[in-house]
């Protein structure tokens, strides 16, 4: 009987911990959102993952990755532009394709 009370006490402590940290509230909100969806998604688990991930605060690592992505996109665009310029310069010094085939 004492073992049963100890397990109940641990469960109650864990429940209070989840409640205090906001986990129960967040889970309830996501489950209510799923319940209220007019067209249920094919994967309830993916729905939960998406909505739980969206509500999580953004970590500094994620922000750094976003900044790096923006930088890399800018560099990529610059390289594409440079590539086009170099192609047009190169075209000035190469004979057209038709002349190459005739040779």
From TrEMBL:
<feature type="region of interest" description="Disordered">
    <location>
        <begin position="84"/>
        <end position="103"/>
    </location>
</feature>
<comment type="similarity">
    <text>Belongs to the AMY1 family.</text>
</comment>
<dbReference type="GO" id="GO:0003713">
    <property type="term" value="F:transcription coactivator activity"/>
</dbReference>
<dbReference type="GO" id="GO:0005739">
    <property type="term" value="C:mitochondrion"/>
</dbReference>
<protein>
    <submittedName>
        <fullName>MYC binding protein</fullName>
    </submittedName>
</protein>
<dbReference type="InterPro" id="IPR026060">
    <property type="entry name" value="AMY1"/>
</dbReference>
<dbReference type="GO" id="GO:0007283">
    <property type="term" value="P:spermatogenesis"/>
</dbReference>
<dbReference type="GO" id="GO:0005654">
    <property type="term" value="C:nucleoplasm"/>
</dbReference>
<keyword id="KW-0539">Nucleus</keyword>
